[in-house]
Amino acid sequence: MATKTETIKTDILSAYTQHALEHESFPTSVYKFCKENTIEEAEFYNFFASLDSVKHAIWQAFYDNAAALLAKNKNFDSLSRKDRLLTFFYTFFEVLLLNRSYVLFALHENAQPMKNLGQMKQLRTSVKAFATELIEEGNEDKTRFAQNPTELFSEATWGQLLLLMKFWMNDSSPSFEKTDALIEKSVTVAFEVFDNTRLDTLLDLGKFLWKETTAKA
After folding, report:
1. Which of 41, 44, 167, 192 is deepest in the core (most CB within 10 A)?
2. By the 8 A CB rule, do 85 and 154 touch?
3. In degrees, to the nearest 5, what angle opens at C-alpha 213 toward C-alphas 108 and 84?
4. What is the DSSP letter of 162?
């Protein structure tokens, strides 16, 4: 059962997303935001330093919700590293689907895509930490010179998630089945690269992306 503190924080996040969707703009004043949602301003500052920090926390909440779902899976820790990454991606996109309207708005709010990435700083840190655990586990069976650099590969995992999100945002297939297919192919490629690259898997992913890109052209 959620504590009163957790409930208040969740209420602030929910009010923020609701405001963004109903007004088609993010809140710009803590005072007005709190007044409209009957939140004590001092209470707001118990959790967030600014409205921007709420925006960042929403993306972190998506990750936390996915992690909570994974924690309920008793078999998750016994899965292979590849299947753990697959399961994480599938679960994360299930969470995004529940919040698709907000995600589409938040990532289209600024005409400059790089500025939109600023709101995902906390999410990036969490995803890289998750990936780092998988990479370090994989490195345990490698000699020191054959080990893969965790910073490089964890950043690649973050880039992979961004690519998947961009594809998902434009995916019009039933139940987003093309996104599911891309998740599987991209994870397969990631682990082929990690465990010594096979050209055929890279070509397979390239063909898939080419086909989907040209179909939308």
Report:
1. 44
2. no
3. 75
4. H
Q: Are 134 and 187 in contact (CB under 8 A)?
A: no
For residues 179 and 213, give the distance between their C-alpha atoms in angstroms, rounded to a whole number. Answer: 13
Q: Which of 34, 35, 56, 37 is nearest to 45 (CA)?
A: 34
Band (141; pLDDT cuts 50, 70, 90): confident
Spatial separation of the C-alpha atoms in residues 212 and 164, rounded to whole Å: 13
pTM to 2 decimal places = 0.86
Tokens matching residue 127: 């995803």
Q: Determine the Cα–Cα distance for residues 15 and 38; give it in Å rounded to an integer.
A: 10
DSSP for residue 39: -
Q: Write the pLDDT tens digit of every residue in 54-93.
A: 999 999 999 999 999 999 999 999 999 999 999 999 999 9
The whole-angstrom separation of Cα 165 and Cα 187 is: 14
Cβ-based neighbour number of residue 102 at 10 Å? 17
What is the spatial distance between Cα 100 and Cα 176, in angstroms, rounded to a whole number?
12
3-state helix, strand, coil in the chain (%, to 5): 80, 0, 20
**Amino acid making up residue 212:** E
Any idea what DSSP says for residue 189? H
> What pLDDT was estimated at residue 202?
47
Residue appearing with tokens 């055929």: 200
Interatomic CA distance for residues 185 and 202, integer angstroms: 9
